[in-house]
Write a structure and sequence with these properties.
By secondary structure, chain A is mostly beta strands. In chain A, 0% of the residues lie in helices and 52% in strands. In chain A, the strands form two sheets. In chain A, strands 2, 4, 5, 9, 10 and 11 form a six-stranded mixed sheet that branches. Chain A has a five-stranded antiparallel sheet with strand order 1-3-8-7-6, with no helix packed on it. Helices cover 0% and strands 56% of the residues of chain B. Chain B is globular. Classes of the chains: A mainly beta, B mainly beta. The interface between A and B is medium-sized, with 24 and 26 residues.
């Protein structure tokens, strides 16, 4: 099945630093989604990307849909303590018939810790 | 108002028991899902329903049975609970044209002792 590999697995940074993480796949994705999960909560959608090469921002967050359609990147600028959490990339899983039925495959997550 | 609400938030139970987790969404979405998050935080789909019809049924033990009485509700019943069932279970929903992603509930932490 399709798999998404995120790196790094974890990051420990100082407040104010910029953060970069990425997500790669062995197969092409038509949509890339980035979620954040706060402790004790469900994942929340941050950014959705629909077109190869697309660059989209949401406040201090910027995500890019890779040109090859096999990767995506998420950057966080000037990190703050509330950026702490787990960041997941996700994309639609396509079955043999070429449909996804809304099924999302998630990466294993990047755990971000921000020191004040 | 909570968009996707799950109950209970925490569930501690003994091996062999039967338990249910309830999920309701007030977003008017057509599709609902159950995901399992293991101790390593990996999210894996279990089931999805579209307008009360089962669409996705991943390789899940048949001790797990979803039920959707209407498109706003998707419950998960688990029979004969085992230690390995301990995890966080998330309900989610999406509109048709799910490309906009899911809306997740806040999760149910199940601990089997």
């Amino acid at each position: 099945g399709q798999q998404l590999n995120q790196s790094p697995q974890s990051m420990f940074i100082q407040e104010g630093e910029d953060v970069s993480m990425n997500c790669t796949s062995s197969s092409i994705f038509n949509t890339w989604l980035w979620y954040k999960q706060d402790p004790g909560e469900g994942p929340v959608l941050l950014i959705a990307l629909y077109k190869a090469g697309e660059l989209t921002s949401n406040g201090r967050l910027t995500a890019q849909f890779g040109i090859t359609r096999k990767d995506s990147f998420l950057n966080i600028s000037a990190s703050i303590p509330s950026d702490v959490g787990i960041y997941f990339c996700a994309g639609p899983s396509i079955n043999a018939g070429g449909t996804s039925y809304g099924k999302l495959t998630f990466g294993q997550g990047t755990i971000l810790t921000v020191h004040p | 108002d909570t968009a996707v609400s799950q109950t209970p938030k925490y569930l501690v139970t003994q091996m062999g028991n039967d338990k249910s987790i309830k999920c309701e969404q007030n977003l008017g979405h057509d599709t609902m899902y159950w995901y399992k998050q293991d101790s390593k935080k990996f999210l894996k789909i279990m089931f999805s329903y579209n307008n009360k019809e089962l669409i996705i049924n991943e390789t899940v033990p048949n001790r797990f049975s979803p039920k959707s009485p209407d498109k706003a509700h998707l419950n998960l019943h688990i029979n004969s609970l085992e230690l390995g069932d301990s995890a966080v279970y998330f309900c989610a929903s999406s509109p048709d044209g799910w490309n906009y992603g899911y809306t997740f509930g806040s999760g149910t932490r199940l601990t089997v002792v």
